[in-house]
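> call design_seq(struct)
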């Protein structure tokens, strides 16, 4: 289990500025974070230049109907899964015609769900150069897990811009 270092408001503003400078747009696909990720992004003045939108697909069936996640994948694995997270991120890119799609899915708690303990979180990012995914095992109560998932998704986008920069808008 683990905890993440919270993404500061300054780091978030720097991310929005970097996306703006590179001419890149972003969209979110969220489950356990319930819209908190897109809300965090739009807290930054100027976010309207880069944030295309967000889809809160809290119910399993909406992951398929809104984001195009494979119904057979959802039936086989449930929503707490790497491939589901990747498909959600791809779906956000397509739905909102964004350069970058970022997704969150997992178990916020307080107890286990879909056979996974609370704190099991998948974040994924789909971008012009490919896709990235992280599996997290976060400690804490429901609010802490959700906040950690949001920070992990933002950190993943930051890392994509830093490490895949030459292929993602540079």
């Amino acid at each position: 289990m683990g905890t993440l270092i919270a993404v500061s408001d300054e780091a978030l503003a720097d991310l929005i500025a970097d996306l703006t400078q590179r001419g890149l747009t972003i969209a979110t696909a969220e489950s356990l974070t319930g819209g908190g990720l897109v809300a965090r992004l739009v807290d930054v003045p100027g976010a309207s230049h880069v944030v295309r939108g967000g889809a809160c697909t809290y119910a399993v069936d909406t992951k398929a109907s809104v984001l195009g996640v494979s119904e057979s994948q959802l039936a086989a694995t449930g929503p707490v899964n790497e491939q589901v997270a990747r498909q959600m991120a791809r779906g956000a890119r397509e739905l909102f015609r964004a350069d970058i799609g970022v997704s969150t899915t997992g178990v916020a708690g307080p107890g286990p769900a879909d056979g996974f303990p609370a704190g099991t979180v998948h974040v994924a990012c789909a971008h012009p150069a490919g896709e990235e995914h992280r599996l997290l095992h976060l400690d804490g109560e429901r609010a802490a897990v959700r906040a950690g998932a949001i920070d992990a998704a933002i950190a993943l986008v930051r890392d994509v811009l830093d490490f895949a920069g030459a292929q993602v808008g540079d």
